[in-house]
Amino acid sequence: MTMKKMLMVTAIMLTPLAVRAEVVGSVDTTFKVFGPDHKIMVEAFDDPDVQNVTCYLSRAKTGGIKGGLGLAEDTSDAAISCQQVGPITLSDKIAQGKAEGEVVFRKRTSLVFKKLQVVRFYDRKRNALIYLSYSDKVVEGSPKNALSAVPIMPWSR
Fold first, then answer.
1. How many angstroms separate the CA atoms of 146 and 36, rounded?
2. Residues 6+ apart with CB under 8 A from 2
3. What is the tens place of the pLDDT at every residue in 59-99?
4. 122-132 pLDDT, tens per residue?
5. pTM of the entire structure?
6. According to the UniProt entry, where is the signal peptide (predicted)?
7. Separation between Cα atoms, residue 60 and residue 42, nearest integer Å
8. Where do the structural domains in the chain lie, given as residue ranges?
9. 71 partner at 20 to 30 Å CA-CA among 13, 34, 44, 123?
10. Adjacent-strand bridge partners of 30
């Protein structure tokens, strides 16, 4: 990989999405004498282009000294569940099929090179929104993933 390409990839990775997750809660999984414990975090975010769809993510958060300083790399373990919380309204770009495979959430899970992402797909044939969570790195990602589907009822439009 050329230096120019590496700088471009790094700049894209560091560009934050506007969507921020709210921490709903957490549980400790491993006690650490120094620094915070390892945890499973539960976070919620609203889809920025679909009114009244909220996704809940559970993800591993590495503790210890490195974790406390933000230098640790979190594992690729995550789960997702997305729910309709009111009448669904699709944005024009989704309704017209212009938002296929769109990243709706991104969170850094290491200092620079790894991130957890949620990508939304619109299954027009079955009238459903599909949310895929996965973790990737600049060089090699993980096949670990989770999926959630939200049916769009005819009265939701």
1. 26
2. none
3. 988 888 887 788 778 888 889 999 999 999 888 888 877 76
4. 998 999 999 99
5. 0.77
6. 1-21
7. 9
8. 3-156
9. 44
10. 38
